[in-house]
Amino acid sequence: MSPVHRLTVVIQVARLRWAPGPLTDQRSDCEIDMSHTYPVDSQAMEAFLLRLIAAQSYSTEEQDAAAILRDELSRLDFETTVDDWGNVVGTLRLGDGPTVLLDTHLDTVPVVDRTEWKHKPEGEVVGGRVFGRGSVDMKGPIAACVHGAAALRGLGAGTIVVNGGVAEELVEGPAAVHVARRVRPDFAIICEPSRRRIARGQRGRAEVVVEVAGKSCHSAYPAAGINAVEVMADVITELRRLAPPTDPVLGEGILVLTDILSAPHPGLSIVPERCTATFDRRTLAGESEDDIVDPIRAVVDSVTARWATQGWVRIADDDYTTYTGVRVTAPNFAPAWLFEEGEPIVETAAAGLASVGLDARIDHYRFCTNGSGTAGALGIPTIGFGPGDEDQAHTVDESIALDDLHLGAQGYAAIVESLLKGDHR
Question: What is the mean pLDDT of residues 89-94?
Answer without folding.
Answer: 98
